[in-house]
C-alpha cells in the first residue's frame, strides 16, 4: 500500500471495535469517516487499484452499519458487519502483500529523467506477422532521457490499456520519470541506447535500468515489437498483443533447427525495428520542430535487451555501423551474429542456473532434450565470439532469468516472479553498475574500473574480461 492507503487502512480498524461495542459508536464513525476521506483523496489524486477494493468496501460497510446503529441496540447483525469488515481488511492486506504497489529504485545519476511515448511507421517495410496485411510496419516506443522538468507529473509504469485486469494496478503505479518533460540541454547531444524486451515482454519491463541510464545522460528507447511484445496500444485505439504462435522456448512441436530458423526470422524483424528507431531519431535531430533537435547522438549508439531482446541487441549491433556496443542480458543468440560472432564491444550477463548435463541432453522428454541442446549450441557460439573478438561475461550468483528485469519487484513471493535467491536490490544494483560502466566506456571513452578489474567488488559476481584474456594470449 502507498502511504495514504496505509493511513486509510489503519483508520478503518477502529470501526470494527465500534461495531463490536468495544468502542463508542461516535468514535468509530469519526475514524471510518476519516478513513473514507483519506482513501477518496488517494483514489482521486494517485489513482485507485483493485487490491484496495476490499478496503473501500469495508469502509463503506462500516460507515453504513455504524450510522444505522443505536447505542443501546447492538445485536447479531453488528457482529456480522464487524466480521465482514475485518475479513475485507484482511483481504486487502493479503492482496497488497502478494501484489504490492512496489517502489522502483531511485535513479543514481545527476539528471532528472523524462519519458515520452511515440508511434513510428516504417516507410519501407510492410507488416509480415499478419498474412495478407496491407499495412506498413508500425511500432510503439517509449523514450527515457535527461530532462528539465517543469511541473510535469510523474509517468505511470504502464499505459492502462496495455495491462490486464490482474496487472491494471501498473497503470497507476508511479515511476521516477516526468511525463513529456523538456529534454535537457546541458550535456547534449546524448548517446542513444536501444532496449529490447523479452519474448512477449514489454518496453517498460526494465524500468529500473532504463531510468538509471537516462539519469546518467543517455537517451534510452524501449521498443515494443508489434505482434511479439505486448499488449501494445496504438494512438488510433488498437491494442495488439503477442501472436498466438509458439514460444521461442517451446520445443514440443519444433526441432532445434526449426527453432533456430524461427528465432532468426523474428530477430531480423526486430533488429529492423531498432534501425527504424535510429533513422527516426537521426531525422528528428536535425528538425527544429522536434523536441530532439540537436539533442541526439545516433552515431555512437548502443543496444541492450533481456532474454530474446538480448539476441536482438546483438544482431542490430552486428548489422548497423552506428551501433558500437551491445549488452545481452541472459538471452540465447539468433540470426547472423550467432554463428559469425560480434566484432564490437559485447557484454553478456548470465543467471546462475545449473549447467546442462548429459542426462538432460539424452532425456526422453522432448522439451528438456531440445532446450538443452539449443543451450549448448548457444554456449558454443558465445565462446566462439569471445575467443575471436573478446568481450565481457558476468554471472550473478543466486540469480535466475527474470532477475534482470523488474519482475522480482512485482511480488515478494518468488514462486510467482520466478526470481532467484538473490534479493532484487543487490541484483539490480549490479546490473545498473555494469551496464552504466560498459556503455560509458564503449560509447564515451570513460574509465570503467569494473570492466578492468580481474575480480568484481561484488561478492555475487563472477566476471570475465575476454579482451584482456585474448590480449594476454597473443
Number of helices: 14
Give the end-to-end Cα distance, rounded to a whole number of Å: 58 Å
Strand content: 15-25%
Helical coverage, percent range: 40-55%
Q: N-to-C SSE series?
A: HHHHEEEEEEHEEEHEHEHEHHEHHHEH
* Unreliable stretches covering 5 or more consecutive residues: none
Content-based structural category:
alpha/beta
Major beta sheet summary: 12 strands, mixed
Mean pLDDT across all amino acids: 94
Which of globular, elongated, flat, extended, rod-shaped describes the shape?
Answer: globular
Mind telling me the C-alpha Rg?
A: 26 Å
From the structure above, extract its key features.
globular, 14 strands, two-stranded antiparallel ribbon, 474 residues, twelve-stranded mixed beta sheet, 14 helices, alpha/beta
